[in-house]
Amino acid sequence: MTVKTTWYEADSRFIPGHYQPATLIDLALSRDIDSHRLLRGTGLFHEDILAGQTRLSPQQFLQLIGNSRRLLDADDSSFLFGQRLLPGHYGAVSHALRHAQNLHQALDTLVQQQALLSPLATPRLLLDEQFAYVYWLDSCGAGEQWRFLLEASMTSLVAMSQWLSGRRLPWVCSLSHAEPRYVEQYWVHLGEDTQFKRPLDLMRIPREYLAQPWPNASATAGQVARLEAVGQIEQLGFAESFTDCLYTYLIEHVRQPPSLEQAAQAFAMSPATLKRKLQKHDTGFQQQVDRVRKQVALYLYQVKGLSNEEVADYLSFSDAANFRRSFKRWTGSTPNLIRQLFSMG
Amino acid sequence: MFSVLKPHRWKLTALLLAANLGLLLHLACGDLKAVSEWVWLDIIGEGGSALLALVWLGLVLKSRPAGRVTNYLALGLSCIFFSWWIDSLDEFIRLPDSITWDHWLESGPMPVGMILLTIGIYHWHREQLAISAQMEKRERLFREHRLFDKLTPLGSADYLKRQLADSLADSISQQQPLSLLVLDLDNFASINQHFSHAEGDAVLQALSHLLLLNLRRQDLLCRLAGDRFVVLLPNTGERQAQLLAQELQHAVHSLAHKTRQHGERLQLAASTAVVMALDETPETLLKRLNLALARAKQPLAKSA
Fold first, then answer.
1. Domain count of the fold of chain A
2. Is the CB of residue A44 less than 8 Å from the CB of residue A60?
3. Cβ contact (<8 Å) for B225 and A182?
């Protein structure tokens, strides 16, 4: 008996070639890049994509991104790609975004329909009293293409909310990598206050912007489009990637992190299969556990305002010193330093 | 590749014929040396030189538009190749001592080629001066083609940073003020959305020409990123820089750019900011400039 897969993996072919990949292909073609060289190694043909029949796996899309980066050889490629991504031309789900009543609805749609709107980078939404936070997770093991994806994804959200709201919204982006040589691209496309070497790949906006009504949105068209978009996801048969499913499972059990065997059992597969699947996504079990625990710890500090001891206790560490050591391993920094980072930003 | 060489096909055919003729003459008058008699060092040295001369010829023809200067360079390199070619033939073919014309074939074309090449390079230099004059306001003292912007005929942000480091040092040593001006289009994203990204690219290209026309000879215009341009203003104080910024803003406002598809006029507007350089690194100066621009844009937040 085969286990029903309710997730997508790095080699599931489900991304329509005329959705996000076409946007990247068109960008490259507009810069006079040869379509054969662009698609080399992806196993794809431009004619098939034009015919609307091609479905790409995340791996193929990542290969296409790698080729485009190399051939375009420009610092602004990811940002130009991002500007063209949302709301996009992806059927009902794009309509749903286009007719979102406000930022909150647009973000909810983006999160729920991530498999269609942003298959390689998963956005997650968090709220506290003052701010809304969107943080991005690598959903398919992007490896060296992750920074490109992150730049594109953040730009897509900034650009879309600027277009649909009719003004530039005060997003503040913080990224975990160091300030790159081409920092001016971040200033222009993401904002002058973009911060680097932060613990998470995170975007933040004051909460009052979530509910402000957006002009030119049709409530009825939006409502119908959202229903149709749910149908689109059902037809697809999955809404999340494998690593995102594991992420959700680990979040639920973060107070008592499960072992590899327990997790494998929950996913109805052997530990060896789970290991192999994680390897395919360029990651490992402990790495995933650490990532979840780090993010929960940061969430408790920032959003819940807990103290070191309380966070250590929540994550079931025997003592605070032990927790500090682990935290240093996850983030390269001590809890107190991270606190300062937050209070500055 | 071959379309580039097409205008030169007669030159190349003539060279091929001459090289073959030389070979046939040698074969007709002399006899082949046995492999044991070959001197590998000479073969590699002389044959390699001939081969390299051929590569130079190919690169020159491929990279330059046809014309007078190209002809000089090509003829010169052809003569040099021919002479090295004949030189390497006698490594394989022994001519009887009674024959002397081979010395003429070997050494005759060399000085002629050298003279033609020298004339070519001299005119190339004159040509380069003319081109550099055309590059005024887009380039200063230093050229690196890898730092060209990919969309507009301007230098990129990396070129600007390099120039900025030099100019900052100059301004300190000469006790002269140095100012920077940044110009950013208002509402550029909506041009992309309403008229396509290709139209947005066309606007940026038009804008780069317009800005060049409105600058002084010593200024340097670079594209920082997206729709943001930076002008480096040597020997310029803040007040004068502000004046220039206003002039650029007016120029952008009066530019009647027509869309490519329907010829519709686009109403453009730009925000500007200026800063005067203090004793600081290029990075902090650029950062300060962009923050100044963000402040200047704030009241316009609706149309950013």
1. 3
2. yes
3. yes
Reading chain A (345 residues) residue by residue, the pLDDT tens digits are 333 468 999 999 999 999 999 999 999 999 889 999 999 999 999 999 999 989 999 999 999 999 999 999 999 999 999 999 999 999 999 999 999 999 999 999 999 999 999 999 999 999 988 999 999 999 999 999 999 999 999 999 999 999 999 988 999 999 999 999 999 999 999 999 999 988 889 999 999 999 999 998 999 999 999 999 999 999 999 999 999 999 999 999 999 989 999 999 999 999 999 999 999 999 999 999 999 999 999 888 877 888 888 899 999 988 888 888 888 888 878 887 777 766 544
Which DSSP helix (H) or strand (E) runs through A151?
helix A146-165
Instruction: Note whether residue A5 is domain-resident.
Output: no
Distance to chain A for B251, nearest Cα, Å:
22
Element (H, E) at B200: helix B197-213
A185 — contact with chain B (CB < 8 Å)? yes
Report the predicted TM-score, pTM, of the whole model to 2 decimal places.
0.83
Domains and CATH numbers, chain B: 2-134 (no CATH), 145-303 (3.30.70.270)
What is the residue range of A204's domain? 75-210+219-239
Give yes or no: residues A20 and A50 share one domain.
yes
Task: Check A30 against B189: CB less than 8 A apart.
Answer: no
Q: Which of B179, B151, B150, B174 is nearest to B164 (CA)?
A: B179
Beta carbons within 10 angstroms of residue A129's beta carbon: 7
Instruction: Tell me if chain B has a CB within 8 Å of the CB of A206.
Output: no
| Cβ pair A30:B198 closer than 8 A | yes
CB atoms inside a 10 Å sphere around CB B122: 12
Q: A24 and A79 share a domain?
A: no
Interface test with A, best of B154, B159, B224, B229 (most A CBs within 10 A): B224
Q: B302–A166: do the CB atoms touch at under 8 Å?
A: yes
Q: How many CB pairs under 8 A join A and B?
A: 62
Last residue of a domain, one of A73, A94, A123: A73
Neighbours of B171 (CB within 10 A): 19
ipTM: 0.87
Nearest Cα to A160, choosing from A271, A220, A86?
A86
Out of A72, A84, A168, name the one closest to residue B304 (CB). A168
